[in-house]
Amino acid sequence: MAIKVVAEWMINLEDEDISFIKKFLLASGSLKEVANQYEVTYPTVRLRLDKLIQKIQVSEDTANEPYVALIKRLALDDKLDFETAKLLISEYKKTKGVK
């Protein structure tokens, strides 16, 4: 059965995120096995999974605010530092009249 509609949170994932999810599923959710495949430590894989979870949560939580979601994704992908992201979101919310 082919996927006809892709969920919003999936659209925002990068190719490396999809690859990680595939390896995670094929390893039956074993972070130890995924760490072995990537030849990294368990804490490194745990951190990668935590960031991926945050990306998905950002997509779900900010569906009504695409700009905020974009800024948060850039910060999670280390393309924008967190202080700058917080400042941009804060200023954006001021223009929208939201605290």
From TrEMBL:
Domain YvlB/LiaX N-terminal residues, every copy: 66-96
Which residues are in the DUF2089 domain? 13-58
InterPro entries on file:
DUF2089 (IPR018658), YvlB/LiaX_N (IPR053959)
This protein is called DUF2089 family protein
